[in-house]
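Recap from last week: sequence in, structure out.
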Amino acid sequence: MNWSDPTRQDSARGRAIRMSWSLLWLFFLTPVVHDLATGGYGPARLVLGSFGLLVVVVCYVSLVFGGIGWFGLLGRVQSALRRVLDTDRTLQLTCLLLWATSVGLILAFDDEWLGLMVYVSVSLGAGLRFPQSMWAILGCVLTGLALGTLLDAAGNDILVLAFVTVLTGGLMIGMRRLMETLVELREAREIVAQLSANEERLRMARDLHDVLGHSLSLITLKSELAGRFLPGHVERAAEQVADIERVSRQALVDVREAVGGYRRPTFAVELAGARIAARAVGIELALLPEQWPVCPDPEAEAVLAWALREAVTNTMRHSGARRCTVTLGTGLVWSLDIADDGRGAARCEGNGLSGLRERFALAGGDLRVGVPDEGRGFRLTASVPVLPGKGDVGQIDPGVNR
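Predicted structure tokens:
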């Protein structure tokens, strides 16, 4: 992206400052304008000089600051320039036009006009890409030296002109590269913001699916049980309705925590939910070991707890199993193995397993699905590394059905 790129997003205040700065530097054309006005030139040379200066100013401002139409001045010219100044070839032709016009004006008048080479150098540094701009500025310096020698300018003036030409052109190259870097940083910041927003949406989608999927499954099961108990067993139906109320209230809390980004599931909560769900559908739930150690790494525990919730929920809803076994393995890598004797997995994975794979990938863990050793049912094996150097602290009483 170059300074003349029309896609840049400049504020009105920034454009006004940049335009004012460009017009301020035109003050150094005063000796040229004074010579043109007081040099006693004829009408033809006056017209030629005025038109040449206009071309120089238009090219200079267009190359350095990307347009000349601010404050309502020459709006159509600015629009036309911005339509064509978006390619390197057009920029090169504009620089060539500026250089040729300046050389022609210097030859047509006298050494008072040698200062135009400074504007040419600045425009070359702003309009051309590096290292092309460096060689162009070097050519501009040599042109100024040659013209000064040809017009018998003072030696000190020629050396000062060469120094100023190199200095201003080099500064403009540095400023252009700085601006390009800033533009790249702005674009990178926008990309990072988009990626962060996408990641947050994915996180919320995973959390809401896991939270609501489990809770709504329990509510559905409890509602079916309550319907079966009516009208013959009103008290048992009332118990199911009370459970539905508790689950729905907890689901509301979980959703609020998930949206707020604070939810971190634990073994204790998920084991209690698995016990309730198993009792509701009449599945025997076996935990190995019966009392689980507390995970020393909360992040690892959260990921495994999500896997426990998803696997148990799918078993209760879809498997038609009679028994579900959950086995916990500890060490440097904690693993969770959930197996049932139901109908097995579907041919394609749903959103739940896809979300789990993303969670375990972010945690550096692994998730596998398959068939138990008995050859029937569904098996999910999840593993994730824990923080080293920490021992087990306490135990969890899962409250398993006997």
